[in-house]
Specification:
The structure is a homodimer. The first copy, chain A, has helices spanning about 10-30, 35-50, 50-70, 75-80, 85-100, 135-150, 160-180, 195-200, 215-225, 250-260, 280-295, 335-345, 360-365; strands at about 105-110, 115-125, 125-130, 150-155, 185-190, 210-215, 240, 270-275, 295-300, 310, 325-330, 350-355, 370-375, 395, 405, 410-425. Chain A has about 425 residues and is of the alpha/beta class. The first copy, chain A, folds into 2 domains: about 10-235 and about 405-420, Aldehyde Dehydrogenase, Chain A, domain 1; about 240-385, Aldehyde Dehydrogenase, Chain A, domain 2. The longest helix of chain A is centred in the N-terminal third of the chain and has 19 residues, at about 10-30. Strand 16 of chain A pairs parallel with strand 13 (about 370-375) of chain B.
């Protein structure tokens, strides 16, 4: 493959050809036994470790180019593949190999009047297109999850990681094919040409689902241009609502954990809503805890006098996904006011109530519309591993097919299976 | 509402306004208790019966206009609302009222390490847009299924049924609101302006899902133009494969039932594939049975000598959804040849094998990719009622979210619910 890394003259033909080849391989992959898929995933993990030096050298090219382009320290850090990170990529593949294969599982088989059996069998979706930015470990993670669930995958990573993504994808391809996977079932588009994504989004004959992972701009562009169904992994503007009946120590811990446990993630608490009746008791210790943790607060007029270091919140702050050590704080008149604020400003991602009042907790669970609704539990818990899905490809902010944390099952669809002995429709 | 039935000056504003009003009502509908929804559905059924004469009079206007436009007898028959058909529409609503409400049901609640509970709760999708042709009973059926599953609905029917659809929708709206439904949760676009569909397909702020029901042209147009996710109810090019090990009497009955039980439907058998080893035994009795039933046969060169009345099949016949008393017949070299033909020409709708050989049956179930795969059972069995879903909005030919027969559950999505007592992410 000489035509790599940006030097492709006919990008439309290149993308179409790659997608078609994956479609062809995916038909065989769909019925490849779990043992073969698992053996291949383990071989891929071994190959990543064995060829870590090669990966490091290619990664260095990306880091050098990134530095020359003036990428900031955080971006360079996300791009860097240390030996530890390569080992952790390999571990990820081994974990996915150890998970049960969802393909072929039949749900709810029952005997119907007339005597035939009907149930739903899990089958791969077909070919999945993943469009992602920065972290090169996604190349291995996403390929492994798609392969394990029997799907072909077309990967399009960010241009800043092109050398890293290319070497990883080639190592995986070679190790997988040697271990018996249909050759070409996982293909990286080895180009930095931005038009490649546009061409990918119209391959509806070859690709069944597009999953974009990245910033708001990327997601919006994909949704607008795609002729293929999209499951968005969009931003999270998540709230933690401290009810009048909250245990205030628990509320303090949940707010802190929701904000600081990993501030750059989509399930981080960005706004805390506080019932007016407990504002005087809750806000001063919150101010102290957040000061200690280095979190800057943006406060509404009623919260401001109780938060010594806070700045006044602007209207835009209620719609801001901070993704860093900043948080908005608002005093609300009660449950209804909190839920109205969440409805107006939330992104239907993860919403938390802290309360000891049972009816209020049950109302929140019923009335708040989000991918994950939590009572007395950190917003950061919304995660495929934490929820027991085994692994996750991300957190869907779409409503259809898969909502919230997506694991292997969510990368499959179902078909009805009817087992009869001559039944007719009357 | 003076601006009805085609006389709307600003169609974009009209559609946007109707869709927004449904979105607003749908938020309340989402948490409306099952008792209220059921009472409303029963009241709607009663109102249809009580006002049958009014419906008949409006329907007569559509029939007169249809005759004047030269619609054929079959189309006029589909359009006609006799007292029996109105009664059957009302019965449909009562049956939907009697079904269990899927909303609020929690699947797979389990305790996770750390001690919190996590499960998935069914919630309405939000607002569903239905674009349909001809039969005015769809207005009542589709509205009832959406309401029962807690979804607002925007209906756009065919222009030839505008008077019938309008009177039905207004009767349902009035009866529903009087029985306590949020006013405006089910809205018909009361216009024959074709631009209305275009405007509907870009209401992504107000509509969450589009379901097109109708001919190929309608489906293709909707998929191309929609910015909203679409679940297609597309054509069915279904095969029945008669394996070498088939019971030939059973095969004859299944082929007959698959073809003639209701030839105009998407799960009708359009092509029968016959293993060469049994062609000489199976085809002559098939010819006799089909002659008796008035089915015209299009045969491949190997089948032709064994089917006295058949005409030679053209290449296009293998891709033709007859939807009438015609059928294509092909002799295949064996299982692999049959599956390859299905892969090349099938529409992934409903595929049948007739065989007494267990390994062949199991291979077919595993290897054939269709919304419903049947062993020794008629293709016509693929139906929400027959499969036990209670009612159906149609048969999805999409792979994501819902595949095959769609009932009430398929009109919902899920959210994670986490019940904790202070759990943090470590």
């Amino acid at each position: 493959m000489g035509s790599t890394q940006g030097n492709i003259s006919d990008i439309a033909a290149y993308v179409t050809g790659r997608a078609r080849a994956v479609r062809a391989a995916s038909v065989r992959l769909a019925t490849t036994p779990a043992e073969v898929k698992n053996r291949a995933l383990l071989a891929m993990a071994d190959a990543l470790i064995a060829r870590a030096a090669e990966i490091g050298a290619e990664n260095q090219k990306d880091l050098d180019a990134g530095r020359a382009k003036g990428l900031d320290a955080a971006m360079l850090d996300r791009l860097a593949l240390t030996p530890e990170r390569i080992a952790s990529m390999a571990d990820g593949l081994r974990q996915i190999a150890a998970l049960p294969d969802p393909v072929g599982e039949i749900d709810g088989m029952e005997r119907r009047p007339g005597g035939f059996l009907v149930g739903r069998m899990r089958v791969p979706i077909g070919v999945i297109g993943i469009v992602y930015e920065s972290r090169p470990n996604v190349t291995a993670d996403a390929a492994a999850l798609c392969i394990k669930s029997g799907n072909g995958v077309v990967l399009k990573g960010g241009s800043e990681a092109i050398h890293s993504n290319t070497v990883i994808a080639r190592i995986l391809e070679q190790a997988g094919a040697e271990a018996g996977l249909p050759s070409g079932c996982a293909a990286l588009l080895e180009t930095t040409d931005r038009a490649a994504v546009d061409h990918m989004l119209v391959q509806e004959q070859s690709i069944d689902l597009i999953i974009p992972r990245g910033g708001e701009g990327l997601i919006r562009m994909v949704v607008e241009k795609s002729r293929i169904p999209v499951i968005k992994h969009d931003k999270g503007l998540c709230h933690t609502y401290i009810d009048r009946a909250a245990d205030l120590d628990m509320a303090l811990n949940l707010t802190e954990n929701g904000k600081i446990q990993r501030p750059g993630t989509c399930n981080t608490t960005e706004t805390v809503l506080v019932h007016r009746d407990i504002a005087e008791k809750f806000l001063p210790p919150l101010a102290a805890r957040m000061r200690e943790r280095g979190v800057a607060l943006h406060a509404c007029p009623r919260a401001l006098p109780l938060l010594p270091d806070a700045v006044p919140a602007t209207d835009a702050d209620w719609d801001t996904e901070w993704l860093r050590l900043e948080m908005s704080v608002k005093v609300v008149d009660g449950y209804d006011d909190a839920v109205a604020h969440i409805r107006a400003h939330g992104s239907e991602h993860t919403e938390v109530i802290v309360t000891a009042d049972y009816p209020t907790a049950m109302r929140f669970v019923r009335e708040v519309d989000a991918a994950s609704v939590h009572v007395n539990a950190s917003s950061r818990l919304h995660d495929g591993n934490v929820f027991g899905l085994g692994a996750e490809i991300g957190i869907s902010t779409s409503r259809l097919h898969a909502r919230g944390a997506m694991g292997l099952k969510e990368l499959t669809c179902q078909k009805f299976v009817v087992l009869g002995d001559g039944q007719l429709r009357e």
